[in-house]
Amino acid sequence: MAETSEKQEFDQFVEKVKTLASMMQTPFEHEVTNAVLLLRRLLDEHSMAMLDLQLKNLAPDHGKTRADIVNEDISEVIFKHSTYELEGWLKTMIDEVTRIYGVKTVQDMYSSYLKLIGFPSHLAVVKFVIFYLRKYIETNIKKNGYTKESYIDEYVLELMHRIVQDIEEDVDLRATPQSKALYESKLLRLSAYINKHYTNRLRTSE
């Protein structure tokens, strides 16, 4: 029963992600950045809701705090292009998006493919954001007539700076001791997973 409830919660979460992410199909930057911010809020709310659900399924004398209960499995997704095929601006965008949503990127030195590693809910958000944000950026590169790599890189760096700043300010305003502890606990588990499975054979983006 508990597994079914958690699966239902996750499926509902993914549907909400799809709805919010679709709001990024707009020519207006403020609407894109607002959707990205709302997705981070949704992710944080989902994480806390899943934690509450997990705590309810434990015995009353489990003796653990909210920060200790993180039993989600960590997943891996291979980005569909080799890192050698990624434009510089796209790699920059992916690095920033994964960072603000608590996902790690690793580049396997043998296959040259970029892997996204994180908890399922974080990966669900990241995949949609990368997809729609890439389309938005490519549309604006074409619309503005950018052809020089330096112009494109500068545009994307400035855009990502604005997006990251908005999200970090919003997260700080909403932060509670419980949400901070949960987020830090997930990052620690993610780092431990990467160190265990990938040390000495790939380059990691922090």
Outline of this structure?
By secondary structure, this protein is α+β, with helices and mostly antiparallel strands.
Keywords:
206 residues; alpha+beta; 4-stranded antiparallel β-sheet; 65% helix; 11% strand; globular; disordered C terminus
What does this 3D model show about the protein?
- The structure is a single chain.
- The chain is α+β, with helices and mostly antiparallel strands and 206 residues long.
- It has one domain (2-200).
- The chain has helices spanning 2-21, 29-56, 88-100, 120-143, 149-174, 177-198, and strands at residues 75-82, 104-108, 113-118, 202-205.
- A hairpin with a 4-residue loop joins strand 2 and strand 3.
- Helix 2 (29-56) runs antiparallel to helix 4 and helix 2 crosses helix 5.
- The longest helix is centred in the first third of the chain and has 28 residues, at 29-56.
- The N and C termini lie far apart (37 Å).
- The model is unreliable at 202-206 (pLDDT under 50).
Break the fold down into its secondary structure elements and pairings.
Blueprint: H1 2-21, H2 29-56, E1 75-82, H3 88-100, E2 104-108, E3 113-118, H4 120-143, H5 149-174, H6 177-198, E4 202-205
Helix pairs in contact: 1-2, 1-4, 2-4, 2-5, 3-4, 3-5
